Description:
Elements: E1 14-21, H1 28-36, E2 54-59, E3 63-69, H2 79-91, E4 97-103, H3 110-119, E5 126-131, H4 141-149, E6 156-159, H5 168-178, H6 196-211, E7 221-229, E8 235-244, H7 247-254, H8 259-276, E9 279-288, H9 296-301
Helix pairs in contact: 6-8
Amino acid sequence: xxxxxxxxxxxxxxxxxxxxxxxxxxxxxxxxxxxxxxxxxxxxxxxxxxxxxxxxxxxxxxxxxxxxxxxxxxxxxxxxxxxxxxxxxxxxxxxxxxxxxxxxxxxxxxxxxxxxxxxxxxxxxxxxxxxxxxxxxxxxxxxxxxxxxxxxxxxxxxxxxxxxxxxxxxxxxxxxxxxxxxxxxxxxxxxxxxxxxxxxxxxxxxxxxxxxxxxxxxxxxxxxxxxxxxxxxxxxxxxxxxxxxxxxxxxxxxxxxxxxxxxxxxxxxxxxxxxxxxxxxxxxxxxxxxxxxxxxxxxxxxxxxxxx
Length: 308
């Protein structure tokens, strides 16, 4: 039971919002899932996996942290890409702390330079989080730290391995130390502020990312058409559509004798049952909507734009 007043140790209850930014595929979602102890953001080895802001909640005796996993900052090639980058950049001015995550195995490039330039324009404290340290020789770490220290006045520099969990607890402890005293924004047992429909759609999209390649991963969107409970109250019925941009992509997703779509559905249903804790009936089909990534109406339908 979390004691918001922390009277036993006379420590204030600290809370705040933390943005996680970085180039695509540096491990932001992996870090987010590890910190909260379960999957709230889908993971893939393909860039631009995250399209929306994913909010995850970490609650402890020390306080409550709301982590915001932003889409990877990249050079946009569509209206969807524009939305993703704008979402990530706008977050920097709305939080108490920014975690700039880099990949220890990659050299600093144009993507990092662009983010560093953006960071110069915000007053929010920034931690540099060097991820994937399990994949480099320890002697390579100090030169990397020195290199980035010259580029920005980081509040802290924390090397971690999000996949292995190395030093992630220390990162969370360090974040709490700089957070202001504040309220509990969410119930102690809540780990995300997204509705079930969003999570269900993301789990289906994750399985497509895992099972397909080339242009398919970036060409899909998932719409949950209906969610309803069965008459016995023991089964949740979910009906969802996967949208693609071309007929050839539809054929790939369905697969020979429907085998690909069956595998996507099977894997997604397994994760849904684990996450939601109930029996799931899942039906998925594929629709073609040409060039949907550049159609503002379609992007709004998929929840990528606010109505204001």
